[in-house]
Amino acid sequence: MRPRGGSLFPEQISTSASRLDITTIETGGLVRFVLAGELDATEDPRLREAVALAVARGRPIGIDAAGLTFLDSGGIRALLACRRLVENAGLPFSIVEAGTVAYQVLQITGLLRTFDVPAHRGPSS
């Protein structure tokens, strides 16, 4: 199911060869990147490019990681790079939703505060 609000950047909808779907929606000035699938080093460039486009437009960024089924060190590196890019532009960055996979990985790595992750509410549906 596609989030309401449509795609802000239609060129960023994933291809069938990708293991990560990135949907961008804008609500109240925030660009929300809804991630579904696997975030690793292979998908890093796509996420960085999508975030860079939003930063160029001067928009705060929120990452919805509730749909991630896999997150490894390459994916964490991608999230940290995106955070650095956004914050260097003077814009806010946070993970606005984290499913079980993302929450557990960020908790184990001690990055919940770094990404301002909200309290986990149980398994994603």
Short synopsis of the structure:
This protein is α/β, with parallel strands linked by helices and 125 residues long.
Describe what this molecule looks like in 3D.
This protein has 3 helices and 4 strands. By secondary structure, it is of the alpha/beta class. The chain has one domain: Transcription Regulator spoIIAA, CATH 3.30.750. The model is unreliable at 1-16 (pLDDT under 50).
Low-pLDDT windows of residues: 1-16
Largest sheet composition = 4 strands, mixed
Envelope shape: globular
Kindly, what is the distance between the CA atoms of the first and last residues, rounded to a whole number of angstroms?
A: 12 Å
Strand order of the biggest β-sheet: 1-2-3-4
Number of strands: 4
Q: What fraction of the residues are assigned to beta strands by DSSP? A: 25-35%
Secondary-structure element pattern, one letter each: EEHEHEH
Question: What is the CATH architecture descriptor?
Answer: 2-Layer Sandwich
What is the count of distinct domains? 1
Rounded mean pLDDT score: 86
For the record, the CATH class is Alpha Beta
Structural class: alpha/beta
Query: What is the rounded Rg?
Result: 13 Å
Count of separate DSSP helical elements: 3
In CATH terms, the superfamily is STAS domain
Share of helical residues: 25-40%
The CATH topology annotation reads as Transcription Regulator spoIIAA
Jot down its keywords:
single chain; 125 residues; alpha/beta; Transcription Regulator spoIIAA; 4-stranded mixed β-sheet; 4 strands; disordered N terminus; MlaB-like_STAS; STAS_dom; STAS_dom_sf; STAS domain-containing protein
